[in-house]
Amino acid sequence: MVWKRIVSTKALDNAGGHFSVSVGGNTIFVARGKDGYHAMDAVCSHAKCILGVYNADDLTVRCPCHNAKFDLSTGRMLEPPFVAPNAPKDKLGLKLFKIRDNEGFLEVDVE
Ligand code: FES
Fold first, then answer.
1. C-beta of 66 in contact with ligand 1 (< 6 A)
2. Fewer beta carbons within 10 Å, N or C terminal of the chain?
3. For 91, phi and psi rounded to 5 degrees?
4. Which domains does the chain possess?
5. Which band of pLDDT confidence, cut at 50, 70 and 90, is reported for residue 36?
């Protein structure tokens, strides 16, 4: 594991907070849900736009470019881009990253 410190936990005080950050050669979408913190590859698997439009109620993220929808707890693509309705969703999931609160700072495992 290669833990990288990214920000104080105060940046995500409430469920619904989110941001994208570049760390360890990755661009990572970080969000807080009702169940804790989540981290997923922020680069859309369709055409590389940066995610996204976050819904903390169902832990999903939409791509702002073509509206593909991803599950933040599994990385799976739930809905394809509107410009490619037959895209192979099973092959277009995004990588999840481990994330932790280490003494008031969020850290992600970029290994
Ligand atoms: S780039 Fe994300 S849906 Fe097209």
1. yes
2. N
3. -100, 0
4. 3-109 (2.102.10.10)
5. very high
